[in-house]
Automatic annotation (TrEMBL):
Residues 236-258 have a biased composition (Basic residues). Residues 16-27 have a biased composition (Pro residues). This is Ribosomal RNA small subunit methyltransferase G. One of its GO terms (cellular component) is cytosol. The lineage of its organism: Bacteria, Bacillati, Actinomycetota, Actinomycetes, Micrococcales.
Length: 258
């Protein structure tokens, strides 16, 4: 039905645009994964389902599966992060996985890297709305960033070879790229074998997280930046955290761990 600019339909009857509804109720697995952070995760899910959709950061078809496919899935890699670690999330989009990791692990310091202004504006307002003091939003491409941290994450951003090229300059020696991938994770890692070999990479693995615990487990490709690796055009990097120190968690040596 046609309506006037202020929403009044011909004939004087006022039409109200349909409300943008919030996120669905979190499934039981979300309570298990988020624990004490569940309320904050719910507020983030509501923002994704409302302004995230209306601002075009999230497709409307994602709303019913926000929890399983996005929030729970992106929270699982927290098990691979040390206490107080800094994380650079490359290509955050609507904050996935970086914002989720910051929610589930308040001890982390998370840097969201995203080139698109519309997205960084939404991310900044979301960080403020959620009162997250452990998140910094950076606008720009990963290749242009002057940051240094022990961990970089990425989901649905680029192929492994690009992610390696973008993340290694941001990683301290021994730092880790954690790329959240789909079912082709093992194949992608295999395809990147020659490049990784040329770059001197000795440690890489695919981790299957959440198997038997959640409905949509995640595969994380872990690639360790070799100590010897040299950027071809070294720049001045701003360290955002200590490199991984002597209190390392054990790192699986196998190519695939569950
Ligand atoms: C398909 S979206 C994925 C967003 C989010 N990681 C997710 O899983 O929903 C890819 C994001 O990567 C960003 N991006 C593309 N190239 C990039 C680069 N060189 N450095 C950092 N971010 C980049 C895009 O702007 C976009 O927000």
């Amino acid at each position: 039905m046609a309506q006037t600019r202020d929403g009044e339909a011909p004939g004087g009857r006022r039409t109200v645009p349909p409300p943008v509804s919030g996120a669905p109720e979190p499934p039981a697995e979300a309570a298990d994964v988020f624990g004490d952070s569940l309320d904050l995760a719910r507020r983030y899910a509501d923002l994704l389902a409302t302004t995230g959709i209306s601002h075009g950061l999230v497709g409307p078809r994602e709303a019913p599966r926000l929890w399983q496919r996005h929030l729970v899935n992106c929270a699982l890699p927290e098990a691979m992060l040390d206490e107080g670690e800094s994380v650079i999330d490359i290509g955050s989009g609507a904050g996935l996985p970086g914002l989720v990791l910051a929610i589930v692990r308040p001890d982390l310091r998370v840097h969201l890297v995203e080139p698109l202004l519309r997205r960084t504006t939404w991310l900044q307002s979301t960080v403020e709305a959620l009162g997250l003091s452990n998140v910094t939003v950076h606008r720009g491409r990963a290749e242009e960033m002057s940051l240094l941290a022990p961990v970089a994450t990425a989901r649905a951003v680029a192929s492994l070879d690009k992610l390696v090229a973008w993340s290694f300059p941001l990683l301290a020696p021994g730092g880790r790229l954690l790329a959240l991938k789909g079912e082709a994770a093992e194949v992608e890692l295999e395809q990147a074998h020659d490049l990784l070999h040329r770059m001197g990479v000795e440690q890489s693995a695919v981790h299957h997280l959440g198997v038997g615990r959640v409905s949509e487990p995640v595969r994380v490709v872990e690639i360790v930046r070799p100590a010897q690796w040299q950027a071809s055009t070294p720049g001045t990097r701003r360290r955002v955290d200590r490199p991984r120190g002597s209190t390392k968690r054990g790192r699986p040596g196998s190519r695939s761990s569950h």
